[in-house]
Amino acid sequence: MINAWAVALVVIKELYRRKDFYVLFILTALITLMLGALNFFNDRQIARYLKEICLLLIWLSALAIAVVTSARQIPAERENRTIFPLLAKPITRAQVVAGKFLGCWLACGLVLAVFYLFFVVISGSREHLWPLANYFQAIWLHWWMLAVVIAMTLLGSVVFSAPSANVTISMLVVIGILLLGRHLHQVALRLTEPGQTILSVLYFALPHLEFFDVRDLIIHDWGLIPWSILGLATLYAAGYTALFLTAAWLVFRRQNLN
Amino acid sequence: MPSPYLTLAFLAVFCFSLATRMQVWFLNWSGNRLQSASILKVLLGDSRRLFANQSFVEADVYFHGGYYPSLFDRPPGHVPAVSTAEIHGGRSPHNDLPNFLIPSDDWIARFGRHFVPSEHIHLDKPSQVGEILPWLWLSAELDPNRVQTYTVASFWLRRMGKVNEAEQFLRQGWRANPDSYAILFELGSLYDENRHDPIRARNLWELALRKWQAQETVKPKPDNFAYEQITAHLARLEEREGNRNLALHYLDLLKKVSPDPAAIQHQINRLQRPK
Fold first, then answer.
1. What is the pTM of this model?
2. What interface predicted TM-score (ipTM) does this complex get?
3. Considering the domain boundaries, does residue A258 fall inside one?
4. Which domain holds residue A45?
5. Is any Cβ of chain A less than 8 angstroms from the Cβ of B150?
6. Residues A158-182: pLDDT tens digits?
7. What CATH topology corresponds to B179-275?
8. Minimum CA–CA partner of B169 in chain A
9. B134:A40 CB<8 A
10. Could you tell me if residue A123 is inside a domain?
11. Three-state SS for B220?
12. Looking at the complex, does the CB of residue B105 fall below 8 Å from at least one CB of chain A?
């Protein structure tokens, strides 16, 4: 665990040295503030459109940071040949995978904390409402969704030959699940065999990342999600994260690093 | 080989001369998007109209507090409730959406419902309904010829007590759609109900009626609902102002298209009775 933690700390340091986060945060803040300055029929109480746009930008930025950061971890170590001195230390390949995941996940947690702090301030200053428990649920679910995405991308980074291919495929898969995941079964039922079975299997097998997207509840001021449901969603995400990390380790442990 | 500085100077003079020629042509070119004050028009051109309906539907999503069927659940020809609410006096019926959250055997679908709005609500209180306005504004920016956007926005703005804003928006719509009887009718309603100015209301409704007659009578399926509204409002106004003959004239017109001509005849009889 200490070894994995050491690897994770390096990943976190790498993130705050890179410019990705700063650029995306400034862009998000600028766009939100510019749109917040718009005047719609002299009504200063209107807030939901601003919350929607701000949350959309946060989701896109967090997704970009999570996928790009995790996709380049192992390939960069191999390309720079730093993987050899790293593995020469008393550290197993499983610990490398776990450390890389932990680093990316914690770094994304920090990124989310900054983004959501900005969102809470903007939303609160407009609506004069502070539903902090709802915001906690949103950020918690978002963070766990990113855990699945990071683990999936790490698996991609040991399967695909180039990080660019991994980033593209991971992004397409994640966005595809977020947009269509909920409706796959409905679409499957309208198909003929064997399409129906294939799509149904896919529906039940893939991680339903859309569970973790509670933006509509936040934008439209709905109540809290039951805490037991939140716990189940966390277990669901943890299960898929463990599955992808195990698969990544299984591929990586026998991989020729030269 | 000429001097590189000479070549550079020649190219600079050539570019400058060409620019002076091109600038005049560009400013007079009908396809010059920079003539528009709207940033959306500059960025998207006429393709922006494709997104106008999406923006209008988004207003309806907000009207339902996010409880809304997806593209997969929406029946063909689904009409946004935010536009029909005005027919029901601001109260939208609760059957305005298909029942898309039906009980399911699928545990993923059942579990997923905890993370999305799952209760049918309407933001029809004046303090809440303002949330739909940015999307209606955007819809008008994207497609200035979408008449319904102006009339629906005006309806809700008037309910919120924002009469000046409603009038301004309607006039913006009128400038973009000078032949729209629907905008003229809504503007007349604003003058009648909010400004209590029957003279302007009458002028606007009479103009709306002429526009309707010019456009709709030649169509195989004319917009009779709009005709009913215009004639009924004119009849009511003339009756209120003591112009009995004019009121009877409009009631006669209304009777021809009304789904309940007996009720209109009853009104005619009541007006014809000596006081």
1. 0.85
2. 0.85
3. no
4. 2-253
5. no
6. 898 888 999 999 999 999 999 988 8
7. 1.25.40
8. A41
9. yes
10. yes
11. coil
12. no
